[in-house]
Design goal:
alpha/beta; Rossmann fold; seven-stranded parallel sheet; transferase; Glycosyltransferase
Length: 739
């Protein structure tokens, strides 16, 4: 007997979609449409989220995907228990290349890698290498994947790099529900043509030439120009404020369907160097019934469903159609017909059927009982070690999560660690073999604290019930108000507060009383502890040495580190780690440090997250992406770094000559005390404000004396406090006394 979809093992699905579910635009919208089509046809869908490198801002799971999960049309599969699927669909190769270690074991017959974008971006930065992604897919799924470009432009960009015979003949085009998008337009929207566009406010999404911009989006008032998604790049190209005939809204400020209803024409032109992978907003416009005016290169993708014009022809095309309402209606109707024919849900059903055959049962959609998300976690093993649940708050960086990783590694093999984090970087713990879950913070959910705290209580309580930890460790400087309620409802586990010191003087004093909520307070030490003037100084706690994720003997050699990071072996290299900035703007700290290092003949390395969105990376600047990057610190001859807890202690403990730049805008962490102490001890240089003139002599001195300076810090280091903290946690977990 064939088992109906609703009765099968929840981790056994027909289609498994693997992606970064936080993508705000077309990728997630397309996955949501495909989930709906699969559910309507009778297939079951599983979702596995990977925290990829392409979403740098704090975001929740895309709301459209949340809706599909809540409606029971897809299952969000958490944990490391195996998943079985007839076909795996990976959306965005870059996500798989950089986050595959977060995957649970997956058993499948077929794998499709959907290439949502070209490997190289407009600045020449490579987001993924098809050969590498192909190899990773084989390693993780045991099946050689096929590649499905999302459109002709992407097909051309990957054809030479995809293994022979593994490129699907048909593009994996986005799909859309035409009926849901169609909007009647009985008359013009204004006395003059109303044209518009919808896209994110990225420079590559706009023409880079002023004459082209003014040709396709007039600034003389002859047409009303409506923009959904922001127009900062357009204003920069124009070199002046936007004209009053332009009406601009931020991305997400208005529902796209409502926005499109107010247009007579959809006009979309972008930087000619940018490969627009598909253009979902174009598809939405055509489905809504508004003629789309596009550059000719889109013809290969959209065929006769759009109108094509060179930039200098756009005005005349719009004027001609505006003068002939009958022709305008014919063009709009043909666009809707062809969109339904080629990009309707039926097209997706046909390609899934070709991969795995027709569904075994009719659809059984419907809401999940009690409107709870269909979230499926791994099954608990009754024969197990004692467990520790590690909860990290959502700080400005990864300090809280990394510190808990430091404890988890040393708690083994006595305890079995599990993670629940408010940080969207929580997926990195998967590379260490630990199970993890993501709990969106107030910022990610946009919920007021009074509404979010009950969510915290529910999620943490549910996790405690399922995992059954003997001890819970919270790392953060502001314990959440829901913790006492969690302890009241789930009194079994002991609780530990991992509370870093060196708070700014007089700050956060009211939080100290929350120590009463915990059975143990552990305070990681600080090399600059002598300058601690915060309220935690002298407060009761179990103090350990400064905590770092790695120990010095875990670092790679200089040659190994440079090879692992893809860096040249010979030149002198410096790591610049100061937060996001424009690398070409010497008035900012990142740009000034880069210029100073260049003047000394030192090549610069930055992490990808440091590069501002509008910044183009010069050819002589290397971008690195690795966690933990500290494993490869021997690749660098010196560093220019902020003085957060982790980076400060890692650079000194691992012997990297450093110029420290305190972040004076932190709310609580006394970063200035750290840099000042390191300078007073002769371990490093400090510079409160970086300019080319002030940084150059200090960097020059570090190149000469830096190794001797940092050797003093290494000699003064009391050793990693992580093992001692882990012992305290383990002893509490194994204590047989009744909690």
């Amino acid at each position: 007997m064939t088992v109906p979809p609703t009765m099968r093992d929840p981790r056994d699905v027909d289609v498994l979609d693997i992606s970064d579910l936080r993508f705000p635009g077309g990728t997630s919208h397309s996955v949501a449409e495909e989930i709906q089509a699969q559910a309507d046809a009778g297939w079951t869908t599983g979702l596995v989220h990977l925290n990829g490198p392409l979403v740098s801002k704090v975001r929740a799971v895309n709301p459209l995907l949340q809706q599909q999960v809540r409606a029971g049309r897809a299952r969000l599969l958490l944990g490391q228990e195996p998943v079985r699927a007839k076909v795996v669909v990976v959306r965005h190769p870059g996500v798989l290349q950089h986050a595959a270690e977060q995957l649970p074991p997956v058993v499948t017959d077929k794998v499709v890698v959907v290439a949502n974008a070209a490997p190289l971006d407009i600045d020449g930065y490579r987001h993924y290498a098809p050969a590498t992604v192909h190899r990773i897919a084989v390693e993780h799924f045991g099946v050689e994947p096929v590649w499905a470009p999302i459109g002709p432009q992407v097909r051309a960009s990957i054809a030479a790099e995809v293994p022979a015979g593994r490129l699907l003949a048909e593009d994996w085009v986005n799909i859309i529900d035409v009926d849901a998008w169609h909007t009647p337009r009985p008359d013009w929207n204004a006395d003059v043509p109303v044209i518009g566009r919808h896209s994110r406010s990225s420079p590559q999404k706009w023409p880079r030439d002023r004459a082209v911009l003014e040709a396709v989006y007039p600034t003389d008032g002859s047409m009303l120009v409506k923009v959904l998604g922001g127009a900062e790049p357009a204003q920069e190209v124009l070199g002046r404020p936007l004209p009053p005939s332009w009406h601009v809204q931020a991305f997400g400020e208005q529902a796209p369907r409502d926005f499109l209803a107010g247009l007579d024409f959809f006009v979309y032109y972008h930087d000619p160097h940018w490969i627009e992978a598909f253009g979902r907003t174009i598809l939405e416009a055509m489905a809504s019934g508004v003629p789309a005016v596009l550059p000719p290169h889109f013809r290969e993708l959209f065929g006769d469903a759009a109108v094509y014009a060179e930039p200098h022809e756009v005005r005349s095309v719009i004027t001609r159609l505006r003068a002939d309402r009958g022709e305008w209606e014919r063009v709009a109707a043909e666009a809707s017909r062809l969109t339904r024919e080629r990009f309707g849900r039926e097209a997706h059903v046909a390609r899934i059927t070709a991969l795995i055959g027709p569904p075994s049962h009719a659809a059984i959609p419907g809401p999940v009982p009690q409107n709870r998300p269909a979230i499926v976690a791994g099954h608990a093993d009754p024969a197990r070690r004692p467990r520790v649940l590690l909860i990290s708050s959502n700080g400005a960086g990864m300090g809280h999560l990394t510190r808990l990783l430091s404890y988890a590694r040393r708690c083994e093999p006595d305890l079995e660690p599990h993670f629940l984090s408010l940080s969207q970087a929580v997926g990195v713990v998967g590379s260490f073999g630990y199970s993890y879950e993501y709990l969106p913070s107030t910022g990610a959910t946009k919920m007021a604290p009074r509404r979010w705290h009950p969510l915290f209580v529910e999620r943490v309580g549910e996790t405690i019930e399922r995992i059954g930890p003997e001890v819970v460790v919270f790392d953060g400087t502001w314990p959440y108000d829901g913790i006492p309620r969690v302890r009241e409802l789930h009194p079994g586990p002991r609780w530990v507060w991992s509370r870093r010191g060196l708070w700014k003087a007089g700050k956060n004093a009211e939080q100290l009383a929350k120590a009463a909520w915990f059975d143990l307070v552990v305070e990681p030490g600080d090399l600059a502890g002598e300058l601690d003037r915060g309220v935690t100084r002298g407060a009761p706690s179990s103090q350990v040495g400064p905590v770092t994720l790695l120990d010095p003997d875990e670092l790679t050699s200089r040659a190994e580190a440079r090879e692992a990071l893809g860096l040249p072996q010979e030149p002198r290299l410096a790591l610049v780690s100061l937060g996001a900035g424009n690398i070409n703007d010497t008035s900012g700290e990142v740009g000034a440090a880069t210029a100073a290092l260049r003047s000394l003949g030192v090549e610069v390395c930055v992490t990808q997250t440091q590069i501002a969105g509008s910044s183009r990376v010069p050819d002589d600047v290397h971008t690195v992406r690795h966690f933990p990057l500290s494993r490869h610190y021997r690749a660098f001859d010196l560093a220019v770094s902020a003085t957060g807890y982790n980076s400060f202690h890692e650079l000194l403990r691992f012997g990297v000559p450093s110029l420290f730049v305190p972040n004076l805008s932190t709310a609580l962490d006394d970063t200035a005390a750290r840099s000042r102490w390191a300078a007073q001890q002769g371990w490093a240089h400090e510079l409160p404000q970086v300019t080319v003139q002030t940084a150059t002599p200090l960097l020059s001195d570090l190149l000469e004396r830096g190794p001797d300076m940092v050797a003093r810090a290494v000699a003064a280091d009391p050793g990693n406090g992580a093992p001692a903290a882990a012992r305290l946690i383990t002893e509490l977990a194994l204590d047989p006394r009744t909690p």
